[in-house]
Structure formats: C-alpha cells, structure tokens
C-alpha cells in the first residue's frame, strides 16, 4: 500500500502518525501531479494559438489549482499566482 515500509517510530502514537503521514504524502503527491499536468496542458494549448481550447483548459486548471489550495497542498497565494500567470498567457493569444 505504501512505498515506505520502514519507520523509526517505536511508540504506538508515533507509529500511527507515521502511517498518517504516508497516506497524506501519497494524496498530496497525486494532487500536485494533477496540478502540474493541467498547467502544462494550458501552456501547450496557449502555444498552439487556439484561444477556445486554451480557455477551456484554463477553466479546468483554475478549478484544479483552487482545489489544491483549498486542500492545503499548495499555498493560496501560490495558487493565485499560477492562475494569474495562466490568465495572462491565454489573454495574449490572438484568434
């Protein structure tokens, strides 16, 4: 289930905390990966000079990035900065 199968914890509470940390680490990694992927898709769509596709990808990216911030995986100002930069990128597209 987990990638790490060892822990240095010896007490019952520390063992539980180590298990919780592993679960959260895997969950956070999945959210971060999804965020990076959608941002990459927006950048690729913007590079293709197709404004309607880029706008659709941007809308999906805004939702995913906001959810990541809401879950605490990324900071809310980091999320705002990412969305702002993507908005500027898509706004530059002509067509």
Protein architecture, described:
This protein is mainly α. The chain has a single domain, classed as Methane Monooxygenase Hydroxylase, Chain G, domain 1, CATH 1.20.58.110. Helices cover 77% and strands 0% of the residues. It is built from 3 helices and no strands. The protein has helices at 12-47, 51-71, 76-91. Helix 1 (12-47) packs antiparallel against helix 2. The chain is elongated, with a radius of gyration of 18 Å. The termini are far apart.
How would you summarize the topology of this molecule?
Layout: H1 12-47, H2 51-71, H3 76-91
Helix pairs in contact: 1-2, 1-3, 2-3
Brief summary:
The chain has 95 residues and is mainly α. The chain has helices spanning 12-47, 51-71, 76-91.
CATH homologous superfamily, by name? Ribosomal protein S20
Order of helices and strands: HHH
What's the number of domains?
1
Helical stretch count?
3
Segments where pLDDT lies below 50 for 5+ residues? none
**Biggest sheet details:** none
Bulk shape: elongated
| CATH topology call | Methane Monooxygenase Hydroxylase, Chain G, domain 1
Cα-to-Cα separation, first versus last residue:
48 Å
Strand tally, please? Answer: 0
Instruction: Give the percentage of residues in beta strands.
Output: under 5%
Q: Quickly name the level 1 CATH class.
A: Mainly Alpha
Rg to the nearest angstrom?
18 Å
Second-tier CATH architecture:
Up-down Bundle
Q: Tell me the helix content.
A: over 70%
SSE-based structural type? mainly alpha
- The chain-level mean pLDDT equals 91
